[in-house]
Amino acid sequence: MGACKSKYLTFTLDQYQYAIPVKDVKQITGITGITNIPVKPKTIKGFINLKGKIIPVMDLRMKLDLEYKPFTQRTYIIVTKFQLGDIKKQIGIAVDCVTEVVSIEESDIENKKDKLCELVKKVGRVEEKEILLLNIQELLSVEEIDLLKQT
Questions:
Q1: How far apart are CA 135 and CA 83, in angstroms?
Q2: What is the full DSSP assignment across 84-140?
Q3: Which of 2, 47, 21, 1 minimizes the C-alpha distance to 102?
Q4: Would you list the DSSP string of 86-100?
Q5: Residue 114: CB partners within 8 Å, gap ≥ 6?
Q6: Chain-centre distance of CA 115, in angstroms?
Q7: pTM of the full predicted structure?
Q8: Which domain holds residue 129?
Q9: Up-side HSE of residue 145: CA atoms within 13 Å toward CB?
Q10: Cβ neighbours of residue 63 under 8 Å, at least 6 residues apart?
């Protein structure tokens, strides 16, 4: 019986390689068309209108306490889905660059007891590269969840 593999969408922030499960990705879009809102958590940059749906956009750099870097033409928004109780919601996360889809065997995923940060509890290995695996369900703070419930 073969090893169990899962597919992940990989992207970069600074020199770090991150990934989220492909099953959680709805769409990838460019950075154009973000509407700012005056009152928001500092990690939420604004909203985009995607096929008639209003989607909040999170600056993942701020969420992970990385150095501020303005959005560029190479910045992408990964629209992800997650569950808030009975409610299914979407949020866009702004990343430096989307790289590729990779398959990672379950045996190549290591739980990090010391946690690199609250959002990265697992590390996957692909061809000698370490990829930090984000948990979308734990990405949001209570304040951010409250904002999403209103959208």
A1: 12
A2: ETTEEEEEEEEESEEEEEEEEEGGGEEE-TT-SBTTEEEEEEETTEEEEEE-GGGS-
A3: 21
A4: TEEEEEEEEESEEEE
A5: none
A6: 17
A7: 0.85
A8: 5-150
A9: 13
A10: 43, 119, 139
pLDDT, one tens digit per residue, over 25-66 is 999 998 878 888 776 788 888 889 988 888 889 998 888 888
87-132 confidence digits (pLDDT tens): 778 899 999 999 999 999 988 988 876 555 667 778 898 888 889 9
d(CA 93, CA 111): 23
CATH code of the domain containing 30: 2.40.50.180
Whole-angstrom distance, CA of residue 23 vs CA of residue 84? 17
What total number of domains does the chain contain?
A: 1
Question: Tokens 């991150």 correspond to what residue?
Answer: 18
Structure tokens at 67: 């150095």
